[in-house]
């Protein structure tokens, strides 16, 4: 904090904060505001009313109107829903900050830490209509009047971060930049709670206690105890570039390209390749503070143009900085940008990053990360810690669909809803885990089409998802996500859990002595399998859940009719080719259909099963090996599986 509070009133400092686009300046002004009003960041009710009552200029009033309206929703219980809950949010990207706002509105005591000391990402994100609506309800237009007007449906990441950070700060969130999360620390005595380890080591946050840690750091597996996997698509190389918007006539006139891809504009891409040698699969151009371009480039053209110096056997080595020529890359994007804008931008000059380097990047997005689980609860010495993932660290988006912030914000709402349930103590821990995990399993299936009526969206899952049980996560699956040293409590939770009723399950549970309960997770997991199989069998018994074979074949035939050489009968369905063709039709970025070895039954099936599970939530009932060995391809299991595929894709 600074000693001398400037000689101006709260409204002036507020105005300065609104206009600030430098993180350090912003925090300085905010500290001034807090000093002026003798306030310390803290829970909503102790902070927000004072700011509101002291800032009376119209911009302030517009913001307070929006926030008051948003906060009046019953879900927040007037800022009491999460009273006394101490929440740490790791990462101040769009998702971390969005989660911080909701947790603060619930009344929690929220701290956000961000390892960087600047917000500098010029890259622009396209926002789905529901995200724009959501931002408007938070008063985002007070900061960025153009948002959501006309066809402005995009924003630079840094601008979005600033808007969300400023709102968080006005609500009382405590924010630290230059603070890097390392790990969480178990309670060490009966009186002590959960801590975290952050860098720098003498940081005050190291002394704080937390009940909830939300990982919004955009990284893979950054929090202990979470695993995940990478969904491998076909090789995909993206390039982003930001050119200076000099606001000259040419800059104003140049027309945006909201996204064109090869499939729809073959002539454009072919002509560009012939004229310039640049071969792309898609390109987007947005105009804002910068001229932002993002494109997917074909490897061969990058090699031909000397951008990639040499081809490598291992695709991971392909884009190492030692194998990329920066000069050739700059030349490549300049040519691509000039060509697609029909030379409307004659003096292209790359913007500089915070470190003074040209704002151009090339990266591989062949693999997309997805965590296996979205949450865990640990209990030690009577102290519970809820850990959860949101945003990219939960589910890495496929960027051309622009789904990052949309799915990311949904995951924030799901996480904050879980916090509310966790704090209320009314619902068993296993049940709240089941709910969050079920929602996580529906999340990847969100599209712009199935989230249309969003004006009444709230933290309540049923306001956003049609059927919250669809994810089908079982109480028995949740056991592995609850790690407690209170075996009695564990038993009570299990006994009370409404899903655990059959005598078989009870006897399974009785096998666990108090100490064994935690160690015997693997036994519990095999118990899960028993449950899942029972469920599948029950489903299989319902004949109406299986479509007749002839109908299935005719549906598949129709779906893949444009794929030459793919014939559909029950044996070809079994060898995996048809499933792969179908996937290629619906998710072309995830499978390189034309380079599949059609004879590799095991791998083709495994690949298809894997992608159908991750993308559409269809559990595989067989393995690739079983498909190869299976004597009776028309078994109930397989037909049941194909029926699920048919139902899911028909609903797409
Ligand atoms: P991030 O934005 O990655 O933020 C994470 C934050 O955590 C960072 O600030 C980081 O510094 C901080 N951090 C990391 N580790 C730590 C630590 N240990 N301690 C403290 N802080 C830490 N999305 C869209 O919605 N629309 C689009 O059009 C779109 N286009 C895209 C184009 C490209 C080329 C790419 C790559 C992505 C695109 N996305 C798009 C995705 C979008 O950028 C992300 O989904 C969004 O930024 C996710 O935000 P996040 O908050 O989860 O993570």
Q: What would you call the structural class?
A: alpha/beta
Q: What is the CATH architecture annotation of the largest domain?
A: 3-Layer(bba) Sandwich
Number of contiguous helices: 27
The CATH topology of the largest domain corresponds to FAD/NAD(P)-binding domain
Q: What's the helical proportion of residues?
A: 40-55%
Poorly predicted regions: 498-544
Strand elements, count:
18
What compounds sit in this structure?
flavin-adenine dinucleotide
Shape: globular
* Span between termini: 54 Å
Strand % is 5-15%
Radius of gyration from CA coordinates = 27 Å
Secondary structure layout:
Blueprint: H1 10-19, H2 23-36, H3 44-54, H4 58-71, E1 86-90, H5 94-105, E2 109-114, E3 124-126, H6 129-137, H7 140-143, E4 154-156, H8 157-171, E5 174-177, E6 180-185, E7 195-199, E8 212-215, E9 228-232, E10 237-244, H9 249-253, E11 257-261, H10 266-276, E12 280-287, E13 290-297, H11 299-304, H12 315-318, H13 326-340, E14 360-364, E15 367-371, E16 375-380, E17 383-389, H14 404-424, H15 429-442, H16 461-464, H17 475-478, E18 482-484, H18 487-496, H19 503-510, H20 516-519, H21 521-541, H22 549-559, H23 570-574, H24 577-586, H25 601-616, H26 624-629, H27 636-650
Helix pairs in contact: 1-2, 5-8, 5-14, 14-15, 22-27, 24-25
Bound molecules: flavin-adenine dinucleotide (FAD).
How would you explain this protein's 3D organization?
Residues 498-544 have low confidence and may be disordered. A hairpin with a 2-residue loop joins strand 12 and strand 13 (290-297). The protein is of the alpha/beta class. The protein is built from 27 helices and 18 strands. Strands 5-2-1-8-17-16-18 form a seven-stranded mixed β-sheet, with helices on one face. Strands 11-12-13-10-14 form a five-stranded antiparallel β-sheet. A two-stranded antiparallel sheet has the order 3-4. It folds into four domains: 10-228 and 371-464, 3-Layer(bba) Sandwich (FAD/NAD(P)-binding domain), CATH 3.50.50; 234-365, D-Amino Acid Oxidase, Chain A, domain 2 (2-Layer Sandwich), CATH 3.30.9; 503-541; 544-650, Calponin-like domain (Actin-binding Protein, T-fimbrin, domain 1). Bound molecules: flavin-adenine dinucleotide. Residues 90-96, 113-116, 125-126, 157, 180-181, 216-219, 238, 240, 294, 391-392, 397, 399, 402, 404-406, 408 line the site of flavin-adenine dinucleotide. Flavin-adenine dinucleotide binds next to helix 5, strand 2, strand 3, strand 6 and strand 10.
């Amino acid at each position: 904090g600074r000693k001398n509070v400037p000689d101006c009133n709260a409204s002036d400092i507020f105005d300065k904060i609104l206009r600030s686009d430098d993180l350090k300046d912003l925090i300085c002004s905010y500290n001034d505001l807090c000093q002026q009003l003798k306030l310390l960041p803290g829970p909503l009710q102790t902070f927000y009313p004072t700011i509101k009552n002291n800032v009376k200029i119209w911009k302030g009033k517009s913001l307070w109107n929006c926030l008051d309206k948003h906060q009046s929703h019953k879900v927040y219980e007037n800022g009491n829903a999460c009273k006394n809950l101490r929440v740490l949010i790791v990462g101040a990207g769009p998702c971390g900050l969005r989660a911080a706002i909701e947790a603060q509105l619930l009344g929690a005591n929220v701290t956000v830490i961000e390892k960087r000391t600047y917000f500098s990402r010029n890259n622009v994100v396209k926002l789905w209509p529901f995200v724009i609506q959501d931002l408007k309800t938070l008063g985002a237009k007070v900061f960025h009047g153009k948002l959501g007007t006309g066809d402005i449906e995009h924003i630079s990441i840094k601008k979005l971060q600033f808007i969300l950070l400023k709102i968080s700060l006005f609500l009382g969130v405590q924010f630290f930049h230059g603070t890097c999360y390392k790990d969480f620390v178990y309670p060490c005595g009966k009186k002590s709670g959960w801590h975290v380890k952050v860098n720098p080591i003498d940081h005050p946050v190291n002394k704080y206690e937390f009940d909830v840690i939300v990982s919004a750091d955009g990284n893979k597996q950054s929090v202990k105890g979470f695993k995940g996997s990478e969904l491998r698509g076909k090789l995909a190389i993206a390039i982003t570039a930001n050119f200076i918007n000099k606001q000259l006539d040419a800059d104003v006139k140049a027309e945006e390209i909201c996204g064109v891809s090869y499939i729809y504009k073959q002539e454009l891409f072919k002509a560009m390749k012939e004229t310039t040698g640049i071969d792309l699969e898609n390109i987007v151009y947005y105009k804002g503070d910068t001229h932002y371009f993002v494109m997917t480039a074909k490897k061969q053209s990058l090699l031909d143009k000397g951008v990639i110096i040499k081809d490598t056997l291992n695709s991971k080595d392909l884009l190492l900085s030692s194998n990329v020529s920066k000069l050739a890359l700059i030349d490549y994007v300049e040519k691509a940008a000039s060509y697609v804008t029909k030379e409307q931008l004659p003096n292209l000059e790359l913007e500089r990053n915070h470190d003074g380097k040209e704002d151009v990047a090339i990266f591989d997005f062949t693999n997309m990360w997805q965590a296996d689980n979205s949450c865990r609860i640990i209990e030690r010495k009577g102290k519970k810690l809820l850990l959860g993932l949101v945003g990219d660290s939960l589910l890495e988006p496929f960027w051309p669909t622009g789904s990052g912030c949309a799915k990311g914000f949904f995951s924030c709402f799901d996480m904050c809803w879980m916090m509310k349930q966790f704090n209320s103590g009314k619902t068993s821990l296993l049940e709240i885990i089941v709910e969050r995990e079920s929602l996580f399993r529906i999340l990847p299936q969100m599209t712009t089409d199935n989230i249309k009526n969003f004006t009444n969206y709230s933290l309540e899952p049923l306001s956003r998802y049609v059927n919250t049980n669809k994810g089908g996560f079982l109480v028995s699956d949740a056991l592995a996500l609850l790690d407690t040293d209170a075996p009695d409590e564990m038993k009570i939770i299990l006994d009370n859990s409404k899903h655990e009723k059959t005598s078989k399950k009870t006897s399974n549970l009785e096998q666990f002595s108090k100490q064994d309960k935690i160690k015997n997770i693997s036994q519990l997991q095999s118990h899960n399998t028993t449950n899942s199989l029972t469920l599948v069998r029950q489903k299989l018994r319902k004949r109406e859940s299986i479509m007749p074979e002839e109908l299935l074949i005719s549906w598949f035939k129709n779906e893949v009719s444009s794929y030459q050489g793919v014939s559909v009968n029950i044996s070809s369905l079994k060898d995996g080719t048809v499933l792969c063709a179908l996937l290629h039709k619906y998710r072309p970025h995830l499978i390189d259909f034309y380079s599949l070895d059609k004879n590799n039954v095991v791998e083709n099936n495994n690949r298809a099963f894997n992608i159908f599970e991750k993308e559409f939530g269809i559990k595989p009932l067989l393995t690739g090996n079983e498909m190869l060995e299976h004597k009776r391809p028309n078994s109930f299991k397989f037909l049941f599986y194909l029926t699920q595929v048919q139902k899911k894709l028909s609903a797409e």
